[in-house]
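MODEL INPUT / OUTPUT PAIR
PAIR INDEX: 1
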Amino acid sequence: MIAIIDYDAGNLKSVEKAFLALGEECVVTRDHDSIRRADRVVLPGVGSFGTAMQQLKKYELDQVIREVVQEDKPFLGICLGLQLLFEGSEESDGVEGLHLLDGEIVKIPEAPGLKIPHIGWNSLDFPHEGRLFAGLKEQPYGYFVHSYYLKAKDPSIVKATTEYGVTIHASVEKGNLFACQFHPEKSSTVGLQILKNFAEI
């Protein structure tokens, strides 16, 4: 069973539909016990960093997330869900993230010819081998929608990068904690392979 965390700030239905298309049993929930009982947990997210952290705390989901990650249960953050795993974001000064990983979330710098937010398909490079990307060819495409991006403190956890004016840390992995800045559930067959790999960890 895969628990998809519902905190009123996620792209929930698309994520659920993608896992169901793979034949995976999943539930969209904010019930603490259901999340604890799940074999795997997914934290989706769209919207602002500060509002999302407020919602997680409102439902006391921040503590449940820490519990399941400490248990080494496979955990996947998607888009804003990746950003929330880190220390904080320039988007919301003074708001502390879950800080399960070290790094900062910063605004994509403006540059000629670059539109912000960054919306669309970008190819992924793999600086280190990552379990989410097993079976994929070099430079597959992922679908991005974001204005802020991750600069991870430890480069060894960065498993995928992309270029959009700057080098964006597009996916990280540490133990059984995984996260993608792009949306696997919107990334066609590449994204389905990534979600399938996660479901088989």
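PAIR INDEX: 2
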Amino acid sequence: MTTLNKKAMEKKLEFGEILSYAFTNGLKNFLSLIACYLLWMLTIWIPYLNVGTTIAMVTLPAALSKGKMINPLEIFDGKYRKFMGEYFLVVSLGMLIIFIATLFMIIPGIVMGIAYCLAPLLVVDKGKGATEALKLSNKITHGNKWTIFLVWIVLAIPYIILGWIWTPLAIIYLILLTPISLCAMASIYGQLAGDIEEG
């Protein structure tokens, strides 16, 4: 294992740093990320094209982690379709393991979901194979799962509360939450996987 990979696996996430990055960059990229989602929803019905755009949407945090300003038309780039096989394999294997873990009283399923959350990004951004990406995602999230879980809970709680108060408020928050949650994932990915070598 290279020194860079060892360093990446020793990193500890900071809860406040993730939220700060998420809100700052989420608002900065708000319009372009919402445009990405609108374009994706408009084209999700087009066979084959929808595979590439879906992979692009799922792996947007990898681009955001590099401080890139997102061009909404980038989701149509053909480069995303070249990862089709590995992407479907990593998602299928991850979901199978999470499903089996969920059978053991739900909590193991949540833990495994967090453990494998970075695997699709590692496939597309770093060119890792499906099994390698799953193993690597599990290793780099080790010791950081609780922080990642807290970030998602903190972002989700207002949505649940607003949903109880008045549904339109929850919908408005969900629209705001979309770019913020993508940037939260970008912060997590950038800190834990930024130094990992490609290939």
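PAIR 2 NOTE: The chain has a mean pLDDT of 93.
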